[in-house]
Amino acid sequence: MPTRLRATAQDLLPKLVLSPSFVLILIFVYGFIVFTGYLSFTGSRMLPSFDLVGFANYFKLFSLRHWSTALSNLAIFGVLYIGICTVIGLGLAILLDQKIRGEGVLRPIFLYPMALSFIVTGTAWKWFLDPGIGLENVMHLWGWESFEFRWIKDRDMAIYTIVIAAVWQSSGFVMAMFLAGLRGIDNEILKAAQIDGASAWKLYRRIVIPMLRPAFLSAFVVLAHLAIKSYDLVIALTNGGPGRATEMPATFMYSYTFTRNQMGVGASSAVIMLIMIASIIIPYLYSELREKRT
Amino acid sequence: MSAASNDIALRTGVITRVAIFAVLILFAVYYLLPLFVMLVNSVKPLEEIRSGNMLALPEVFTIAPWINAWGEAQIGVQPTGLSPYFVNSIMMVVPAVFIATFLGALNGYVLTKWRFRGHRIVFGLMLFSCFIPFQIVLIPMARILGLLGIAGTTWGLVLVHVVYGLGFTTLFFRNYYDAFPSELIRAATIDGAGFFRIFRRILLPSSGPIIVVTVIWQFTNVWNDFLFGASFADFDSQPMTVALNNLVSSSTGVKEYNVHFAGAILAALPTLVVYVVSGRYFVRGLMAGAVKG
Amino acid sequence: MTRFGLKLSASLVALALVAGGPAAAAEEVEVLHWWTSGGEAAALNVLKEDLESKGVGWQDMPVAGGGGEQAMTVLRARVTAGNAPTAVQMLGFDIQDWAQEGALADLNELAASENWDTVVPAALQRFAKHDGKWISAPVNVHSTNWVWANKKIFDELGIAQPNTWDELVAALTKIQDAGYVAVAHGGQAWQDATIFDAVVMSVGGPDFYKAAFIDLDPDALGGAQMTEAFQRMETLRGFVDENFSGRDWNLASAMVIEGKAGLQFMGDWAKGEFLKAGLTPDQDFLCFRFPGTDGTVTFNSDQFAMFSVGTERRDAQVKLASSIMAPSFQSAFNVVKGSVPARTDVSDADFDACGKKGMKQLAAANDAGKLFGSMAHGHAAPASVKNAIYDVVTAHFNGEFDAATAAEELVNAVDAAQ
After folding, report:
1. Testing the interface with C: which of A261, A262, A265 to mutate, by most C Cβ within 10 A?
2. CB neighbours of C340 closer than 8 A, spacing ≥ 6?
3. Which of A263, B39, B274, C297 is the most exposed place for a label (fewest CB within 10 A)?
4. How far is B97 from chain A (nearest CA, A)?
5. Residue B147 belongs to what H/E stretch?
6. What does each of the 293 residues of chain B score in pLDDT, given as a tens digit?
């Protein structure tokens, strides 16, 4: 009897330890998601109200010109941001992995942007991109009179300046993930391949990069959710301008919920964002957790 | 020809190595540029900034903007500089990092070594919480903080940051402990060691690298947060980022860029130090936990 | 590690208790505002010191960003948490929206004893009162249809103050031909809309302005006059420099101050920039109304909305409201801020030439019924409508569609936002 009681206690203890965290997340994440979902079907304006209006907010959302701008901006931004970060991150990791002298100095330089928020670096970036103060002006002062770099003022190009700043912030972090992946590869395999006379290009393409698959996946998930959530950097760099040309879903949602007093529409855009995030994350989680079965 | 080296490094000639180095230096310049702009302009007098080259070194070197940003600049009605808010941030960050890391470690331990039916779903649900856009939680969170009576306090902020940090800290520790040999645990159980004893004696002592990763991650996120800090803090608990924003984005008046840059660097200093000092362990920790498939 | 952490957090608890403990002893007001820059914050400090001399402590809660947008988000969180500040800086329709939610306090007793009904212009009372109850204390009146011009450039090119749209275009052409930037402008939605306010007023006069922006009449919003207003915006677009996009308004002012640009269309807060640069009104720079809008004034008014607070904070709140409305504070604050007092019985002795002009014109416009809330600054229509108009104006100004399409879009956008 006492042993059985002890066994039950031992059995319960782990669940007991886990439960506070789990309950917190149930309430503060899933509870709030349900709440937001409910709001998206109400006519809430300044503060939450509970009068149901059906799908009206969703119809309104998709009739708004700059919600479609926000979605297409996210598509452009997401593809370029994830693509460029992955290429630069992988490239730097491979180069840095060549027993480079000074790696200890270079690595923190590549990594530090992740430590800074755009509230800190926003002004510097704005300067840099502004033709009157930044790169263009500097080139002119250095005697390259015809140099032109005014993307941030251009309705069609401004979104690419956001890509530049975003890549600056995250690519070093991606590099660290790939570097960790590279260092984790068993050297015996590589030695064997090298002795077989495989060229450098072949070695990486055929053997190393396929082995980095987990790092690719992790990087993709981290970058994808950063892209969908990106808010600070848009506010810091262009505040959605010129015009509304650099509106993104996160800035759209914030502005409808909090500055335009159309909380219902804001909530419906939040639900769409959550669906987008879920459609990326859930397949990843599923495969991740299945493969781990032993 | 030397013998095959024992890492992935290719056998390369001098020219290739120089080229590799050049590329790396080029990227280092790209990464350093914004910080350089901030640093250089934070030690120039305002007139020199207005008339000059953003990348030029200062002709007149002055430390005044730093002193101003730290102790004299007008943040609101009071000319206090950023210093009092620095303290507020510390008071918020330390418990938020400590509690989230501690809970994450326990969760990771349970989810790998004390598995129960449905542990995958529980972990999946916790992990998905990393990806929730924070803007949507503001209003319901405010309501709950109000109900708990901790609205506008540092402890309210700590709660918020712990909750939204849990997903990542649990992920880090879970992946790390997953690789930890279960035989050791089983042996200890047979010896009669309990749940907490195993954790304290066997797992915790070897958790160094992953604790570093988790602390860096959580510290950076909490320190840099603006949205929660602005929304849930009171007049006496506003963190550094909110104060910096008040300093930088005031709508009227002459913009004292040198002071703004000095303030920005001051606000970033703790995270910079953490990254630079422990960056080496960061990659090692990622290797051990976070990147595993 | 563990033990150290525990100790540390325990001592932090102790620290927090000490810091937060004895605060409630004296009378205190907590004020949420976004005046964080030198001049404005210093002006607010006058209020703080005044209150402290009456034994009321001031808890400062500044949240800058986006002309108060950030502060309004914070406010929503604070009210939802049941932790509303004593007073909140607020603009136009926001005040009415909060009153609608029943979140604001009743100041009638104080207002009656201090006679607010007679000294505050009716156009301001429209926002400061709800259901016959005073709910906020107005600090100032900004008028938004001003032109700020560099006198040296005007003299050099022999330009007289333009009084009609055509004269304005002629003047701008002359300035541009002389190699200056004609219009110093910052391409941000609210700045585009500030000009649009004045242009709409100049095209159709007060009646059209009221029909379009206050009554939101679809015929006015989509009619021929509105198309003409958009065409005038296109004309002005031709006079700005190519770096205008995203520029802060005070940097645009600096262009006029430094003699790089001829003039700027901006509210009277721009005056502070000119004064700070050591310029004198009428000697170094000119201030006049947007051509074609003389006699009418579009305004916005900063007010401190008073939230319902417990009885223990109520007394301090009333003292705060009373101090804000005191003529001495109204004068002292507005001299610094560039705006004019929110009550019509304040002496103009301490104000400069532009300030005196502004006070006179405000009083005259008030008497003639030509004082209108500014659309661009949230005093003509609620936030949702205002932002919908912003979207169209700024998209058109950046060349996304032509004037006729813009007028059509305006009708749709306003309709969708209501």
Report:
1. A261
2. C140, C141, C143, C268, C334, C351, C355, C358, C359, C362
3. B39
4. 15
5. helix B138-148
6. 333 344 555 556 788 888 888 999 999 999 999 999 999 999 988 888 877 788 888 888 898 999 988 988 877 777 888 999 999 999 999 999 999 999 999 999 999 888 888 888 888 888 888 888 888 888 899 989 999 999 889 999 999 999 999 998 998 898 888 888 888 888 888 888 888 888 888 889 888 888 988 998 899 999 999 889 988 988 888 999 988 888 887 655 667 888 989 999 999 999 998 888 877 777 777 776 545 43
CATH architecture of C146-298+374-417: 3-Layer(aba) Sandwich (3.40)
Query: Does B143 sit within 8 Å of C81, measured CB to CB?
Result: yes
What the block records as the tokens of C132 is 């016959």
Picking from A107, A127, A273, the nearest residue to B279 by CB comes out as A107
Inter-chain residue contact B77 with C12, CB threshold 8 Å: no
DSSP output for A128-192: HH-TTTSHHHHHHHTT-TT----GGG-TTTHHHHHHHHHHHHHHHHHHHHHHHHHHTS-HHHHHH
Q: What is the pLDDT of residue B8?
A: 52
ipTM of the complex: 0.84
A119 close contact with B: CB closer than 8 A:
yes
Residues of A in contact with C414 (CB under 8 A): none
CB contact under 8 A, B249 and C64: yes
CATH topology of domain C7-142+299-353: D-Maltodextrin-Binding Protein; domain 2 (3.40.190)
Of C1, C59, C80, which has the smallest distance from its Cβ to B142's Cβ? C80
Chain B residues inside the 8 Å CB shell of C276: 253-254
With an 8 Å Cβ cutoff, is B229 touching chain C? no
Residues contacting residue B186 through CB under 8 Å, at least 6 positions apart: none
Q: Which residues contact C314 (CB under 8 A, 6 or more apart)?
A: C105
Return all residues near B11 (Cβ < 8 A) that are at least 6 apart.
A194, B1, B2, B5
Q: What is the pLDDT of residue A275?
A: 92
Sequence spans of domains, chain C: 7-142+299-353, 146-298+374-417
- B267 by DSSP, 3-state: which? helix
Q: Which residue has the tokens 């005040």?
A: C95
Q: Please list every residue in chain C whose beta carbon sits closer than 8 Å to the beta carbon of residue B238.
A: 61
